[in-house]
Amino acid sequence: MTRFLAAVFLSLSCSSAAWAQYAPQIEFEAQADFFAIPAGMNFGEVSAIAVNSENHVFVFHRASPSGGGPAYGISAARLWEFDATGHYLREHGSGLYAWAFAHGLRIDAKDDIWTVDKGSNMIVRMNPEGRVVWVFGRKTESVSEAARPFEHVDTPRPAEDGRFREPTDVAFDSEGNIYISDGYINSRVAKYDANGDWVKSWGEPGRGPGQFRLPHSIVIDSDDNIYVGDRSNSRIQVFDTEGNYLREFSVATPIRPGSKAVNGPTPADLDNVAANGAPNALCIPPGSNIIFVGETTFPGRIIKATLQGEVLGTIGNSGRNPGEFSGAHGLACPSENLLYVAETSNSRAQRLVLK
């Protein structure tokens, strides 16, 4: 009997130890139908989402009345504004020259609206009424030999001050300085001052400290520490406002059995998924010590962690149903208990209330 009890205890201990490796699952209510879109209108791939001081929600998505794509002839970028209850208010920037393929969206302390376009290589600042104030970068002209924005040459051309190659996101520090993650090709962070003047850049392609393999998202905490989601390196790097490397961390956490990919086959070995914890989207609630990290299409979760990198739990899983995600490409977090999620592969935005 003693041996039997010991064996049972050992079995339970091993089982408990196995389950202990999984991060807690955070309870939440998903509101996948929160956005009341007028009849005849639909979201395209939803790449980014942001909330202003009036709790209006802005959704940046890849759609066109003519069904355009990432080409210069027809824009695949639309910006819609909704009120705090999810009712559609208006569209901003229709036909804007600087838009070709929607990627990033942020709203600053003045409620100005900032869009980042991967196709045109341009960043636009608009006032709350949607009028263009500033433009950063320059679209490659269609007559140019180099007008192929999605062609990644083996030896990338040298980065240029004030110009971008497939930028991804934008952030602001407490002094109003502007930081742009110049992501897919240049693999750097660019800094402008509060007057819109170029200051510097840092980073280059690579795997070492201060190097990047696709800086895909960028956020800044209340102490002006800069967090860069280095997606293809599956890590988050932290810098000061001068670009000095401070530290890095990973939020990779074991994937629960039964998880399934939405697009393509589910990896056979869930313990060795390269995209585990890869930071597709980052968000820090105002004044918080928490960071939310959206993964890519698989594992597809949203991870809640401290700013020191301690994983506190996971939200949702890969899937198409409400409360599931595929390509959490953008996050907005007006508080620690409220999240808005922009999904590319599911072509939707969800509102999550954490419990």
Topology:
Elements: H1 2-20, E1 28-31, E2 45-51, E3 57-62, E4 78-82, E5 88-92, E6 102-107, E7 113-117, E8 122-126, E9 132-137, E10 169-172, E11 178-182, E12 188-192, E13 198-202, E14 215-220, E15 226-230, E16 235-239, E17 245-249, E18 281-283, E19 290-294, E20 302-306, E21 311-315, E22 328-335, E23 338-343, E24 348-354
Antiparallel strand pairs: 1-24, 2-3, 3-4, 4-5, 6-7, 7-8, 8-9, 10-11, 11-12, 12-13, 14-15, 15-16, 16-17, 18-19, 19-20, 20-21, 22-23, 23-24
Can you describe what's shown?
The protein has 355 residues and is mainly beta. The chain has a single domain (22-139, 163-354), classed as 6 Propeller (Neuraminidase). The chain is built from one helix and 24 strands. The strands form six sheets. The protein has a four-stranded antiparallel β-sheet, with no helix packed on it. A four-stranded antiparallel β-sheet has the order 2-3-4-5, with no helix packed on it. A four-stranded antiparallel β-sheet has the order 6-7-8-9, with no helix packed on it. A hairpin with a 5-residue loop joins strand 11 (178-182) and strand 12. The longest helix has 19 residues, at 2-20. The model is unreliable at 1-20 and 66-72 (pLDDT under 50).
